[in-house]
Amino acid sequence: MPGRILIVDDVATNRFLIKAKLTAAYYEVMVASNGVQGMTIARGAQPDLILLDVNLPDMSGIDMCAKLKRDPVTADIPVVMITAGGAAETRVQALDAGADDFLLKPLDEVTLLARVRSLMRMKLVIDELRVRDESGAALEVSSMEQERPSRGLTAERVAGRRVMVVPHDPSEALEWIPAARERLGLVIEVGQSMSMVLNTVAINPPDALVVHREVFGSEDGLRLIAKLRADRNARGSAILLTLAADDVQTAALGLDVGANDYIQAPFDPMEMVARLRLQVRRKVFSDRLRSSVRDGLRLAVIDPLTGVHNRRYLRNHLNTMFQDGRHHGGNLIVLVMDLDRFKMVNDRFGHGAGDKVLCEFANRLTDNVRGVDLVARIGGEEFCLVMPDTGLKTAIRAAERMRRAICDQPFLLPDGTDLKVTVSIGVAESTGKELDPEELLDAADRALYAAKNAGRNRVTLAGAA
Q: Closest Cα partner for 334 from 402, 383, 379, 404?
């Protein structure tokens, strides 16, 4: 999983030592000695992670972090602040600026590499989702009014999001909880038992969990984290591990097991608030990005005007149904339909009226088919219906029923006009051993044009024309 890391530190010795640790772990390392140089490299090279010293000669590291997070080009790059001092106020400022973590010098190699691996995994997931989302946009699946996630996490709201605390002792008062409720508006629930936590996760997974190293007295918090990461319901929840000070080995192991972040006691309640806000924001952002990808995939196979499937989906689905029919010995019926003299509708009443007719036609068509049948718009005013495991006589009766559903009831246009519309239908059958999918479509298409030539508003069977 090694990737590219940018080190921004004004001390050459520090740059050399950190670079040596990372290079030994097979990471590609770039270095900068000041903020301006670091910003230039970050924008141009797009590293996977930035290790940023708090004190730089030309600007503070915290200010540079804030600039990185405000810039759409660099907003998604994880930033780890590094400093020789560990003041709680400085840590909170760095986290508020968008930093993902705060490490103290001299850097512990085990903790450093564990944190790098954890953030690299997170970045990889975000990047992959981003690529899929942008690929959908490139295919114009976002042409409908679909809200797409903006770059960066700072715009994500966390108020009302749910957090489950899995404590060492449920009766123990936790100072940070009132602050997180007041400042972030989070809905926080404290688990009273392991069974309660697991039931909650199974029924309604929280956005984040705060897990103590030893939960409910003596149970292993790391084992719980591993169990949560193996659970499909909780896999997307952010997990923050709380543990004793200087327990670097457990911190590193926790990150490798699946924790997104950790905090070592004693800690400032405001640091917990800042870390929790970052993790919940990231979880919300990832959820929205995944939702955008799912919507994009859906739109990629749906005709945006009529809401039925498009030609791309039809061809893939027809191939699958054809193979199933061949394997199981079932037959497959294809109906290709075309609205008669549709160009006249557009020419006389306008394209808005034509769109209205197409949508109503698709609605009447879907109202007259079975759940297992597939309706698709091939293009223009031409539609297709695929009927698996259907007898030919049944299919012809269904085609006649659909023809009557179109011609017997006029279509109401936006201007109030009642318009009589008719449809011609071509029917073709395959037993799974004769015609391949393309030949089956072609046969139904030829039958359609035979119906047109015979006077329109009729059903014609392939081979009988």
A: 383
Q: Which two tokens stand for residue 203?
A: 């029924």
Two structure tokens written together for 399: 């085609």
Return the SS3 of 435.
coil
Count other C-beta atoms under 10 Å from residue 152's C-beta.
Answer: 18
Among 22-36, 131-145, 150-164, 387-401, where is mean pLDDT lowest? 131-145
For residues 364 and 307, what is the distance between their CA atoms, to the nearest angstrom? 12
What's the confidence (pLDDT) of residue 157?
82
pLDDT, average across residues 277-296: 81
Looking at the DSSP bridge assignments, the partners of residue 386 are 334, 374
Higher pLDDT, 256 or 299: 256
Q: How far apart are CA 342 and CA 9, in angstroms?
A: 69
Determine contact, residues 302/309, Cβ cutoff 8 Å.
Answer: yes
pLDDT of residue 128: 65
Q: Give the long-range contacts of residues 187-194, CB within 8 A, separation 24 or more.
A: 187/160, 187/161, 187/162, 187/163, 188/162, 188/163, 188/164, 189/162, 189/163, 189/164, 189/165, 190/165, 191/164, 191/165, 191/166, 191/167, 191/215, 191/216, 194/219, 194/224
CB 284 within 8 A of CB 158: yes
Q: Would you give the DSSP letter of residue 455?
A: T
Burial readout 303-336 (b: 16 or more C-beta within 10 A, e: otherwise): beebebbbeebbeebbeebbeebeeeeebbbbbb
Single out the catalytic residue among 271, 360, 381, 429. 381
Query: Is 381 marked active-site?
Result: yes
Q: What is the mean pLDDT of residues 368-390?
A: 90
Q: For position 150, what pLDDT does the model report?
A: 46
The answer, yes or no, to whether residue 437 has pLDDT greater than 70, is: yes
Taking the C-alpha atoms of residue 167 and residue 190, their distance in angstroms, rounded to an integer, is 7
CB atoms within 10 A of CB 203: 8
pLDDT greater than 80 at residue 377: yes
pLDDT digits (tens, 9 = 90+) for 128-157: 666 655 655 554 444 334 444 444 555 568
Nearest alpha-carbon partner for 389 in 462, 442, 325, 320: 325
- Single-letter amino acid code for the residue at 409: Q
Peptide bond into 106 cis (omega under 30): yes
Bond into 266 cis (ω within 30): yes
Per-residue pLDDT at 420: 95
Set out the domains of the chain in order of their start, with CATH numbers: 1-107 (3.40.50.2300), 147-293 (3.40.50.2300), 311-461 (3.30.70.270)
